[in-house]
Write a structure and sequence with these properties.
Blueprint lengths: L8 H10 L9 E5 L6 H14 L5 H9 L6 E4 L9 H10 L11 E5 L7 H12 L5 E7 L7 H4 L3 E4 L5 H12 L3 H10 L4 H8 L3 H16 L7 H28 L4 H45 L12 H10 L4 H17 L6 H17 L1
Parallel strand pairs: 1-4, 1-5, 2-3, 3-4
Helix pairs in contact: 2-3, 4-5, 7-8, 8-9, 9-10, 10-11, 10-12, 10-15, 11-12, 11-15, 12-13, 12-14, 14-15
Length: about 375
């Protein structure tokens, strides 16, 4: 357990103090920190220790918990397109927490994406947090602590996980995945401490997303919006959404083959809804990540124009960044204003029903800001 949190001093001190022989675990924890910091691994290892305590075969109980097949471990993920639904926690967590454990002394509930709970879901969970059964332990995970309702935060013990440094992320990409050094350095810097994003940027569709974001940013910098750079980002988002929906459909179909006819038909109907949600999540996440990369390109142009090229994130495309800094008539203040417009668009993406219109409008705003 402790080796999982060895590089996270705060998490190490709190979780080690909760374990036997001297420790007494809290009823609820809130693991917070950037994506890829190790919260999921730590939650599974912590749950394994809690469920192994008092077991007739602790090693077996620990192994099953780590494998995710222990009957007293419940792992919940958001099923909504952009939020956790009430149904995600009502029976799996709130209802199940009232029932005694199957075989262990405890029941452990891990809730990923706790920041995506809407008010209704959060308020339902609140009662369980306020009056938990003595055998129930909840572990909430979030990448965005600021989005957790204060009423939830105040009833959990906060456990902080640190972001990996760019050097650590780069080394991980090179040694574990064989990513070339310069590409690994760029992906690590562009990930802003998010290990999952660093991996996504370095492999698979990551280079394509980077190219798409770069074209979008440079089209605004050089007044080339006739190329309609937003269309390529939308196409990439749709393709990723299709892949996510297909994966859900295939999983539902495989599961349905093992069910009686009536339940199989119900599972397939529910699977259609789940596929649409998966498509929407992947689609929205791709656009958000693409916009983040657009902003980082403009930011790199700004710091280069300011005479600090050593601070850029796109270290593998330093020549292109330098060329943009030299050729653009925009001042560094205008470039920073443009970065602000991108961040505003990322925030508004959740509320805007027309992504194509929003992306096209943003490109026009960027051009006007950058070209005066």
């Amino acid at each position: 357990m402790l080796e999982v949190v060895a590089r996270h001093p705060h998490a190490h001190s709190i979780l080690s103090a909760a374990l036997r022989p001297q420790g007494a675990p809290s009823h609820a924890y809130l693991f917070h920190g950037p994506a890829g910091a190790g919260k999921q691994d730590a939650a599974r290892a912590f749950a394994a220790e809690l469920l192994a305590e008092g077991a007739t075969d602790p090693a077996n109980a620990r192994r099953r918990a780590l494998d995710g097949v222990h009957p007293d471990l419940t792992w919940v993920r958001p099923s909504g397109a952009a939020e956790m639904l009430v149904a995600d926690i009502e029976e799996p967590v709130i209802g199940a927490a009232t029932r005694t454990p199957f075989e262990a002394r405890r029941r452990v509930f891990v809730i990923e994406g706790a920041d995506t709970m809407n008010d209704q879901a959060a308020n339902k969970l609140l009662k369980t947090l306020e009056e938990p059964p003595p055998f129930a332990h909840l572990v909430l995970l979030t990448n965005r602590l600021g989005n957790i309702l204060p009423t939830i935060r105040s009833r959990t013990q906060l456990v902080r996980f640190e972001a990996a440094t760019p050097d650590e992320l780069s080394n991980r990409l090179q040694t574990r995945h064989g990513v070339p050094p310069l590409t690994a350095d760029a992906a690590a810097r562009l990930a802003l401490g998010d290990a999952e994003r660093a991996l996504a940027l370095a492999l698979a569709e990551g280079p394509s997303l980077r190219d798409t974001a770069e074209r979008y940013a440079r089209a605004a910098l050089h007044a080339q919006l006739s190329e309609r750079p937003h269309v390529r980002l939308l196409d990439l988002a749709k393709a990723r959404g299709d892949i996510a929906a297909t994966a859900v459909a295939e999983q539902i179909a495989a599961n349905a083959e093992l069910l009686p006819d009536r339940e199989a038909r119900r599972a397939k109907r529910e699977g259609e809804t789940a596929g649409k949600r998966a498509h929407r999540r992947a689609h929205a996440a791709t656009i958000d990540h693409g916009l983040q990369l657009v902003g980082l390109w403009l930011r790199d142009v700004a710091v280069t124009k300011d005479g600090a090229p050593e601070l850029i994130h796109h270290v593998d495309r330093a020549e292109q960044v330098a060329a943009d800094a030299q050729e653009t008539p925009a001042s560094t203040n205008k470039l920073r204003d443009a970065v602000g417009l991108v961040e505003e668009a990322r925030t508004m993406q959740i509320l805007n029903p027309s992504e194509e219109l929003a992306l096209e409008a943003l490109a026009s705003k960027l051009e006007r800001t950058l070209r005066g």
